[in-house]
Queue: 3 jobs
Job 1
Amino acid sequence: MKRRLISILLSVCTLLCCAFCLNGCKDDDKSQTKTSQITVMVLSSNPSVELIVENGKVVTATASNDEGNFILSQTEFVGLTPKQAGNAYAKVCVDNGFIYAQTQNITVEISGKQANATFDSVEKEINAVLSEEGLTISVNKDELTPEELKNMLSDALRHLNEEQINAFTQTQLYSNLLSIRKEVQQLDLNTQELKEAYYSSRAYKIISAKLSSWAQTISSLDGFIAKEQIINAIDDLNAKISSFSYSYAESFLMDGEYKTAIKNYIQAKNQQLVWAINSGEVSEQIKQNAQNLKLALSSLKEQTKELLNAMQDTINSAISYIQGLIDGVAVVSGTTLKFTNAQLESAIAQNKEAFKQNYQTFIDENVWASLQP
């Protein structure tokens, strides 16, 4: 569930851009040389998997949908060359019934200076697998545009606003996307809901840490009545964030209506995959049943998101209120508010550790692995 968070004051955010560019703001020529060797590639039939290739090897593999999470539970892509990854993707999709005679096409979305050469090698390997299986399916190339890369990054770095994302150079887009994908990969988040939870918690932790740091600076000042008000407001904000995190987990990760809807869809999809493997085709009735249950799952998710979005609106209002108080004190006192890269990294590390502790049960569960036919 993506929800754009309240942006921190632009005057202060400008100070922080270099921290989030992961050294993209300095030694840019060296960074450009490095990231020119990066290719972002998304392989899609129904399972959709995003691969980041650096210096000829896959360094991160991220599912773009739930079926993609299943594929990642069955195949290790990291360390493969792009052509090996294309081969592995095609094989695991064929072996598990995702690619069969009725499949219309396979799409390779790709970006980077090596895009054309990389696509040619990937297409050749996918076609080799299809030929072995007696399948005639087109492999299509789509450009993964800078705008699409920005959208991918915006979804992950939710503490940054649209203006900041748009200000990134191509070098910074690649380096930031690579960094956040590596961070999430280390946590082994195997459902879309877990990744949504992590991206939100990460953004809230950064914002809360930043506001707390600024409040600490203000608390050292004398004669400002607002500082007690700010401290109390931050405590209230953190309580709201904790409440949201629990409600999210209760809605999407714990046993309940949504979890039941996932199991129903997996059961129907599993039946479809078995048919595809055994007979090479799937009846319209079975396909429609799986599709209906997936639509019901999506509808339930949207309804639940509406309730959670209301909680996030309250959190965003609290952030905006605190920002206004802090800005007022800073302007009147002439105080410069800073949030260093070390503080940023500390907030990210703290959130990562807390997330592992709080969500480990759900991480270990890996519900989409049960899709295997």
Job 2
Amino acid sequence: MGGGQVFSSEANGDAKAVELIGTWQPIDDEFFANDGNPAAEDWSQVSLGINQYNLEERRRWHLRYGVVWARAEGEPNMVQLPGDYNGVYAAYGFSTEYKEGWRIGPELQLNAIGMEGGKDSKSVWFVPQLLFRTVWVF
């Protein structure tokens, strides 16, 4: 769940929006990290960043980037230790308008995060995410 606001648009339709997005993943996703560990518990995430796209196109590619905070609980698969993580993200995706004001499409996001407080011996973890976004534009 999230929201955004366009802060820059040009005559050719190119736009930039600031976005704040919250994510909660209650199920174990072993698509990227099937490491034999027990099923992971909840993954929560908050992203604040910029979304670049073209306002005029019915089907469009978009680029998102910014800062991210995440919390891994239980026995996480990607980061290995439960706790809070901070970092940056970049995402590239595609969306299409399927009904007036509604957009839907896939996105691939990569988080580069480190554990708060330095409790983890690895300084940076790369956490890929395959997302499917539904957006209501009003």
Job 3
Amino acid sequence: MNTLDYSYIGLAIAAVFVAAIVIIFYRQRTKKTLEKIGDMLDTAINGSFAQGVFKDECHKAHEAIPMYV
């Protein structure tokens, strides 16, 4: 094995490490979202659900798309 082979092995290990970090971050974010949705459903079932801050970013993005009739 020469120096180039070791470089490729190091690059592959770094790529796996970065992918693992991204996967862990994504799983935590998904878990947090699902917990929030579960809390919202529980409060809706109890009848005490009140809509909080409404983010209209999606609607603004939708308005930017021209509507052709």
